[in-house]
Amino acid sequence: MSMRVSSIQYGESRVVRFMFDAERAIERNLSNQDLVAGESQLTARVNNSFGKQDGLVVCDCSIDLTWTITTAAENPEPDVRVECKMGGLVVCPEAAAEENTIREALAMNGVMFVWGKMRDVIESASRYSSTGLLVLPAIDPGSVLEGIEKDD
User: Fold this and answer.
1) Which of 21, 33, 53, 76 lies at a C-alpha separation of 20 to 30 Å from 60?
2) How confident is the model at residue 11 (pLDDT cuts 50, 70, 90)?
């Protein structure tokens, strides 16, 4: 079976800000199972900026994420708090399709690319913590993109 390379390609990614705070979970001696069973709250802001360079449509996608895990219903203070702002570049040749179609595809791919990178960073940080491995949940990238202002 032959494999085709996609017109959409990923460029560099970069961590802008990262904070992993599990101090409360450690003080409370919570296990990984306690945290995995806890209430997870995710908020994410996405910013996409588009441009053109050397015959490519370029999307610079950044996600500003806050993830909290709380195990005690009587105390809303999170046991784990993760903040991560990360960006990445996604590109496609201008000739591949109409520009609006390319932009939509780049925006969706940008969210998936950056989200996956954030997932790796969080897994690495938690792996070395007393919390044990915490895995950022999968998302519907379309739901994250709904309501963000479009570049014209």
Assistant:
1) 21
2) very high
- CA 127 from centroid of its chain's CA atoms: 18
Furthest-apart CA atoms within the chain: distance in Å: 57
| Measured distance CA(2)–CA(89) in Å, rounded | 27
Tokens 């790796």 correspond to what residue?
A: 120
- Phi first, then psi, for residue 75 (nearest 5°) are -130, 110
- Higher pLDDT residue, 47 or 5? 47
Render pLDDT for 28-57 as a digit per residue (tens, 0 to 9): 999 999 999 999 999 999 999 999 999 999
pTM of the model as a whole:
0.89
Please give the C-alpha separations between residue 32 and each of 24, 69, 130, in angstroms, as whole numbers. Answer: 13, 11, 8
Q: φ, ψ for residue 16 (rounded to 5)? A: -95, -40
Q: What is the DSSP letter of 30?
A: -
Least Cα distance to 107 among 89, 81, 130, 85 occurs for 89
Q: Could you identify the residue written with the tokens 């994250």?
A: 144
**Contact in structure between 48 and 61 (CB atoms under 8 Å):** yes
